[in-house]
């Protein structure tokens, strides 16, 4: 029977779906696997189910003598050397199409939360420091009627844009490829070069995948282009942003505030972050709703079952085919 190893904690429903079809090995603890563990899993298994925190590099892939599939439990897959896996004929899959609405919801919680200073205000109240209404207490920025700049307008960026109409916002977006006129109209979003988007937006939100081209896409120069009253929101991948430059921009009040769900050296925070009152810090919970995590796990299980049945997995990552050059 084929061995399938799930490297980290995984929803029970999806495990039950997999169990009858394979020799299922799981790690239902919060202890992340080490590189040595991952090598062992790759060596033993036909398929491994990975977290975005599992770095599946060349060395690990090379251990996978019988490995046919690396099924990532997430939409992003920058933790996997896809080109190397593809060269060896090992499928790589992700979970598109099921987490964008949930991640867009969190993005909006961060937009509203940072503009209206929800976290410090809640902490203040909890500490029993609320002694009566004050005209200048916890003033923040308005959201409705403002300009929202979306960097990366794929599934998640588009879901964020759709929600902006309820706030009567002007929406600007930049993307590697311009959207169709029909889609732009549906989203009420205007294609805008990055520099202009940064200069004009009151809220800038990042939704690009991490690639060689997007690493440190936002750094000192870009923060200098933003309005001093603007807020910066990031739920994509940590390395898209130069976190040191962000800390400097916030310290020097060159922008009004920021909210992060991802970090350059995740899970480590950059020095100075925890001291900043104008920075909201979340632990990478973009897709963390009960419903969505179950849907993601279900899709992972479907991909594994596809491969066990000798089929092409349904969610092959987009760059796989170009790297493999022939299997498809
Ligand atoms: C993803 O799927 O890439 C998300 O970051 C997980 O929350």
Quick summary:
This protein is 35% helix and 14% strand. By secondary structure, it is α/β, with parallel strands linked by helices. Residues 52, 74-76, 99, 286-287 line the site of (2R)-2,3-dihydroxypropanoic acid.
Structure explained in plain terms:
The protein is of the alpha/beta class and 328 residues long. It has two domains: 3-98 and 290-323, NAD(P)-binding Rossmann-like Domain (Rossmann fold, 3-Layer(aba) Sandwich), CATH 3.40.50.720; 100-281, NAD(P)-binding Rossmann-like Domain (Rossmann fold). The chain is 35% helix and 14% strand. It is globular, with a radius of gyration of 21 Å. The mean pLDDT is 96. (2R)-2,3-dihydroxypropanoic acid is lined by residues 52, 74-76, 99, 286-287.
